[in-house]
Design goal:
three-stranded antiparallel sheet, 8 strands, 31% helix, globular, alpha+beta, 177 residues
Length: 177
Amino acid sequence: MTEIRTPRLLLRRWHDDDLVPLADINADPRVMRWVGDGSVLDLEETAEAVERWEEEWDEEGFGLFAVELLASGELAGFTGLTMPEFLPEVMPSVAISWRLGTQFWGQGYASEAAHATLEFALQDRGIERVISIVRPQDDASENVSRKLGMTPERETTHPEYGFPLRVHAIDLTEFVG
């Protein structure tokens, strides 16, 4: 089982008891504002998403980690690596993404988890380049991308929803862990 410990977080595979707290995160319009079309997800949709993420782990050897606070055991959200198939123009890239509950915003958890994920990508999986796909108005995600050392690579449009997207990239052979 793949686990990563940072000073404050445990990044791990998903457990059944993660579904309700993750569904609570996914039901918050503030969290989902920059995700897809902005729609919230219910418990069933969250369970389907986790099932897809676990399948990606099995198929690709990487996926989205549950992010747990070491101090309390609370599920803060997720971070990890995915194949961004919704955006064919960047394929076969590997993308890093994150989503945390609002009570965990502004404390550096997303950057801490994402940094550990980049180290995992390079050191454990031999991935040499990672992208992030961010809506330009999502300042918090733009900031995380910058903190990771990623630089804007291209502007594009979401193929389904038509809103602007910014693709950031980092060459992990130059990544300082």
